[in-house]
Design brief:
20 helices; 2 domains; five-stranded parallel beta sheet; Rossmann fold; 40% helix; alpha/beta
């Protein structure tokens, strides 16, 4: 909040402490359903000789002359004619709008709740909430360079850029207009998304996405990267670290939803809107993404699980084997690399997703991708009718990497893998049981492709767009 802006004047420790105390007070008020006493919290210290941390409102008001407001439109300028009206809007400003600027005083969930609280207060007061980015290194001295700013609804982007932001920041930074970038923010819940395929990568998520595209009432968003079919808005885009989305992003997705046939050619004569979904196979791993999903009550989250040993084997070959030959030491090398093993862990992410999302989370197992009945249950969970009888559910993007590994060359290696991945096996079982599903026999008995009679013939998969051949 506003305390972030005092570092250059009163020292970073003091400002971070005030930020911490103010945030705690905000959360306490929120928990009791009361608005935070912002004036009492922030402005009570004004005039204190030991901790003069408050905004100098009189100094700021003194600057509200013709030179500081000449760039404002008349409708916007009316809200900055005196100290009282100015304080009304600026007292709701100052929270960080991106996660990389958080300090260690409060956890991520508390930070998000605090920022959502102040932005909601701004919107309820009839304002518009903006992200202001100060494009210079000096901004690092005073806390986050991406900060929320509440401005009257009458103020347009040009008003905020040329006058409102400079007035708010001028007491500390005195930024030039070419150092300021502003964009209006919205709320993630305003995205017209109905479901998200959020993982688990290397478990068949491409096949799941292709299966859902067989449904006439489902559309998937396009990727910003033409090389991918995934929409990485929650992970690898510039929005992936934003607490609130830009209004332009919300409008973009609303336009995609209105087009209704985006990325789906099964219903060219569609007259009703489709159920818009996002495919992002690693979103489940990101704490911020999970928390954002919680703030999108209309969204259902799909998680596809699979055999941890099979997934480990495939990823080990990808990371520790080159060429087309059979790898002779890929599995032992992978087991010795604790970073590699830890990065593949999904247990903690599954538990957190269940805790945050509850009944909005749908968990399925890889073997269910070949079951029309299981996929019909999934679309019913999304509030849709069953698949057409002509729908074909095929396999896509199988790397077949595991068949090149040395997992089955030595029984002791197989047992080492099973022991190392036992917590992962248990986590997948717990997730399936919590979803009301039976544990597949292959998982329950800890079977691998090395077991007698289970040597499989690998499928031939050209790319992610063409079904695999048996």
């Amino acid at each position: 909040m506003t305390a972030w802006l005092f570092c250059s004047r009163f020292g970073s420790w003091t400002a971070h402490m005030v930020s911490f105390l103010v945030s705690v007070a905000v959360l306490a008020c929120e928990a009791h359903g009361a608005p935070p006493p912002w004036n009492d919290i922030v402005f009570a210290t004004q005039g204190s000789s030991e901790m003069s941390m408050a905004v100098d409102w009189n100094q700021m008001a003194a600057k509200l002359d013709a030179s500081s407001t000449r760039n404002l439109t008349l409708a916007c300028a009316e809200h900055f004619s005196d100290l009282k009206t100015m304080q009304r809007w600026f007292s709701l400003s100052g929270s960080p709008t991106q996660v990389e600027h958080f300090d260690s005083n409060l956890d991520l969930q508390q930070r998000l709740r605090s920022t959502y609280y102040w932005s909601s207060a701004c919107w309820q007061a009839g304002g518009r909430y903006w992200q202001v980015q100060i494009l210079r290194n000096g901004a690092l001295v005073v806390g986050p360079s991406n900060t929320g700013l509440c401005a009257p609804r009458a103020c347009e982007e040009l008003d905020v850029h040329q006058a409102v932001a400079p007035i708010f920041y001028g007491q500390w930074l005195k930024p030039d207009q070419d150092e300021i970038y502003v964009e209006e923010l919205s709320h993630w819940a305003n995205l017209p998304i109905k479901f998200i395929i959020s993982g688990i990568e290397s478990c068949g998520t491409t096949s799941l996405a292709r299966a859902l595209q067989q449904h006439p009432d489902i559309c998937l968003t396009n990727s910003a990267d033409a090389r991918l079919i995934e929409d990485t808005v929650f992970t690898w885009s510039r929005y992936a670290k934003m607490i609130l989305p830009p209004l332009e992003l919300v409008k973009e997705y609303q336009a995609r939803n209105a087009s209704s046939n985006n990325n789906n050619n099964n219903s060219p004569d569609r007259t009703r809107p489709c159920s818009l979904g996002v495919y992002n196979a690693v979103a489940y791993r990101t704490e911020l993404a999970r928390l954002i999903f919680k703030m999108m009550p209309q969204v259902r989250i799909l998680l596809l699980t699979c055999n941890p040993v099979r997934r480990f084997e495939s990823r080990a070959v990808s990371s520790f084997c080159e060429g087309d030959e059979v790898c002779k030491d890929s599995i032992p090398r992978a087991l010795q690399d604790s970073t590699f093993v830890d990065d593949l862990r999904v247990g903690p992410h599954l538990q957190e997703a269940r805790r945050l999302l509850g009944r909005r989370l749908f968990v399925l197992y890889q073997e269910e991708l070949q079951s029309p009945a299981a996929l019909d249950r999934l679309v019913r969970f999304l509030g849709l009718a069953p698949f057409p009888s002509a729908a074909q559910f095929q396999r896509y993007h199988s790397s077949n990497q595991g068949f090149r590994s040395d997992l089955c060359s030595n029984a002791s290696v197989t047992q080492r893998v099973l022991r190392r991945l036992e917590p992962e096996n248990q986590a997948v079982e717990e997730a399936l049981l919590a979803a009301g599903k039976a544990i597949p026999e292959s998982l329950r008995l800890r079977r691998t492709r090395c077991d007698a009679g289970r040597q499989e013939v690998p499928a031939r998969c050209t790319n992610r767009l063409i079904p695999c051949a048996s």
